[in-house]
Automatic annotation (TrEMBL):
Residues 139-223 form the RCK C-terminal domain. It holds the Pfam family TrkA_C. This is TrkA family potassium uptake protein. It comes from the Bacteria. InterPro entries: NAD(P)-bd_dom_sf (IPR036291), RCK_C (IPR006037), RCK_C_sf (IPR036721), RCK_N (IPR003148), Trk_Ktr_HKT_K-transport (IPR050721). One of its GO terms (biological process) is potassium ion transport.
Amino acid sequence: MAKGKKQFAVIGLGRFGSSVAQYLAKMGYEVLAVDESQERVQDMANVVTHAVSADSTDEEALKALGIRNLDVVVVAIGQDIQASILTTLILKDLGVPKIIVKAQNELHGKVLSKIGADKVVFPERDMGLRVAHHLISPNIIEHIELSPDYSIVELQVPSNMAGKTLRELDFRVRFGCNVMAIKHGGEKMDVTPRADKPLQRADVLVIVGNNGQLLQLEQAYANL
Ligand code: ATP
């Protein structure tokens, strides 16, 4: 593979892995896609730079693929937790600089962090949380997860909030959440919002807080 741009490998071509591989390839990156299933490899053959069938729990097989020379390896094996852990361990031993692993549950995630995964992702859990935020409040524009327990949400000011000030709304005491900034339509953003200025319908609040408390706040102001 030519040097220059970052080079990736994706191991496990289920829905998540193949989607990661596909987007990286679309963005012009070189991607090595690996799966033990011939059929899955075949499906990716025309999409990525190299698609190879191999068992990633076989150290020799990974060595032969030259995986240690790549910058980032994504392990997207979900169901077979043992294979996911073994693969991560082997990649760590081979000295892969950055290993990102999809976890099936919290415990799996904990083990992966302990054995040296650089980043552990929980796509199903995260998407579930996003959907919950959107279902509870149609006014949620953006949701950024900071940690498993804390997020930033962008909330379009609903009608039952408009005209009130941050002091009156008292989010800190009522929901333990903080309004970090207020967007006044378009590009203008106030990063030191005043407590005594009435909110407008067109404003967007940028709020940081605990996921549970954010959901409660969204529920309390769930009308349009
Ligand atoms: P998704 O939800 O993203 O579809 P999943 O969490 O259900 O995926 P699996 O289907 O368990 O994940 O695994 C994804 C892929 O990983 C499968 O195509 C499977 O063939 C492959 N896989 C599992 N174990 C290994 C292994 N040891 N070596 C290589 N590939 C493997």
